[in-house]
């Protein structure tokens, strides 16, 4: 009973997060201007990190945590670089 | 999947509730990202996932691994603190970039990046390269 509740909840969470990933991907492909695409990419990074955490909870594997941490760091660096490029036209000045 | 059976029922209910609510709020943020009209409204939608989604899923993960391994596991707090610190920075920079781009567009500047080298044109024409849009000497 315990395992069924958890399995259902984790499966639902994975499906919901994948749907959110698809919606953010639609916004990234559709987005009228560049900042919409950058925002959608940042959202996709964050949702992928949550998806890694949920998959790690389902597997009982601690190593997914490190993948989630790497995704979080890379998403931060990517979004800061893209926003700086949109603002200045250069990344490093 | 043996670790799922080892958990006590109250913990299973709490973990399931946290995970379901967190994932639903993240999905709601994604729906808002698609459905809202302007960029400045869309900037607020995914923060549901950044704040509530991350908080609830991290709490569920900490509770689950703490009970499954029989010791206190708090290394998910690292992700939580990192997201809490970096999200305002990224969204603030993105909002400022959008403000600057909107102002440039209103001033008549094009989004197309002009070519770098223009030797023959007068300096008033190269104003589109400037950062603020103000005429610079």
From TrEMBL, chain A:
Q: Which PANTHER family match?
A: NA(+)/H(+) ANTIPORTER SUBUNIT F1, NA(+)_H(+) ANTIPORTER SUBUNIT F
Q: What's the protein's topology in the membrane? A: Multi-pass membrane protein
**Record field: transmembrane:** 6-26, 38-57, 63-87
Query: Which controlled-vocabulary keywords does the entry list?
Result: Antiport, Cell membrane, Ion transport, Membrane, Transmembrane, Transmembrane helix, Transport
Domain of life (superkingdom): Bacteria
Q: Which InterPro entries match?
A: MrpF/PhaF-like
Q: Which family does it belong to?
A: Belongs to the CPA3 antiporters (TC 2.A.63) subunit F family.
Q: What is its main location?
A: membrane
GO cellular component, as recorded? plasma membrane
Compartment(s) of residence: Cell membrane
Fetch the NCBIfam families from UniProt: PRK06161.1 (NF004812)
Name of this chain's protein: Multisubunit potassium/proton antiporter PhaF subunit
Upper lineage ranks? Bacteria, Pseudomonadati, Pseudomonadota, Alphaproteobacteria, Rhodobacterales
One GO MF term on file is: sodium:proton antiporter activity
From TrEMBL, chain B:
Q: Do you know which InterPro entries this protein is assigned to?
A: PhaG_MnhG_YufB
Q: Which residues form a coiled coil?
A: none
Instruction: Return the annotated region ranges for Disordered.
Output: 106-137
Question: Compositional bias (Acidic residues) spans?
Answer: 124-137
* Transmembrane spans: 12-36, 48-67, 79-99
Q: Which Pfam families does the UniProt record give?
A: PhaG_MnhG_YufB
Q: Which superkingdom is the protein from?
A: Bacteria
The secretion signal range is: none
UniProt keyword annotations, A-Z? Membrane, Transmembrane, Transmembrane helix
Molecular function per GO: sodium:proton antiporter activity
**Entry protein name:** Multicomponent K+:H+ antiporter subunit G
Give the organism the record lists: Paracoccus versutus (Thiobacillus versutus)
